[in-house]
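Entry 12.
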Amino acid sequence: MQRWVAPASVFLIVGASLYAFYELAEDVETSTAVARFDEFVTDRVQRLRRPWLDLIMKVATYAGGTIGITVLTFILVFILIDLGKVSEARFSAVLVIGGTILANGLKPMLRRVRPTETATLIGKPSSSSFPSGHSMASMCLALAAIEAVIASPAVLPWIKIAVIVTCMIYVLLVGVSRIYLGVHWPSDVVASWLLGTAWIAGTTGLTLIILQDSV
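Predicted 3D structure (tokens):
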């Protein structure tokens, strides 16, 4: 029974995250509370616009885009394989690729309109606004890197802390950049983080079960 405690706890996180995502997805077009939240956060974030910050946010959003995620994932996987951690490399690839497919697969079903063109600082994508694919992919990549570092006993504690903090800042910057640049509503980003939590926890839980069964 004890061997199932960790996987069971993980799947509780999956259930809670999916429920929160479902509630948000259901209310995103009709709830006045969500609309007020989106307008309030968007206004506060876009008031920070400055030429130098525009550049930082554009770099952040490109780092969470298709090319950026592909390059960063390739680097992570290559490093892990070079260190002989093939299982971790495979897990990281599945986490990022699967998460990206999941987020983009939901977009046509939800069909939320993106913010108005006048508020954007970059080209507005033609795809649905909900959920944010950039936020989802960057979160999956960051958690893959964190899990790989934490699982390695050879990595010094201060390096682990540095990697965790850097990954958290990366995820936050990518998510905020989508709001700042005017291509996503805040609730799109929050929804992606909820969905990402469920996907990451679920994938981790299944991995734990498989590893335990193989012992």
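Annotation: The first helix runs from residue 5 to 27. Confidence is low (pLDDT under 50) at residues 1-5.
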